[in-house]
């Protein structure tokens, strides 16, 4: 996803710091109204925004002039659209559409209607990596009937 050079990466990094820890992420999901039994509390163990190096995976010389940045978000589980909304919120703050206090308020006062103040990040480029399972989750007998 390409963004303009007016992105304040320091603010984006500050926002990702706010996401770390246990929060009620109602503001950052879509389906809690239809699925009220789901617990919106999640713990973000790690949330980073960092510049990556161009490694030549795109064979276009114009890409040599582009700064590549990545979000890394680690958790045991995510809500529907949570990652895309977290990224969209961080970028909205980085472009100056939201303040750090706005984002903190979104976390401290969870409300699905508060989402209207920022955009959902596009799904392109989003990928799941480094999946780990606890083997204890697989020791229950399985019925094949």
TrEMBL record:
Residue ranges of the TM segments: none
InterPro entries reported for this sequence: PsdUridine_synth_cat_dom_sf (IPR020103), PsdUridine_synth_TruA (IPR001406), PsdUridine_synth_TruA_a/b_dom (IPR020097), PsdUridine_synth_TruA_C (IPR020095)
Pfam families: PseudoU_synth_1
Residue span, Pseudouridine synthase I TruA alpha/beta domain: 18-134
EC number(s) recorded for this UniProt protein: 5.4.99.12
Gene3D superfamilies linked to this entry: Pseudouridine synthase I, catalytic domain, C-terminal subdomain
One GO MF term: RNA binding
Biological process per Gene Ontology, one example term: tRNA pseudouridine synthesis
Domain of life: Eukaryota
UniProtKB keywords: Isomerase, tRNA processing
Protein name: tRNA pseudouridine synthase
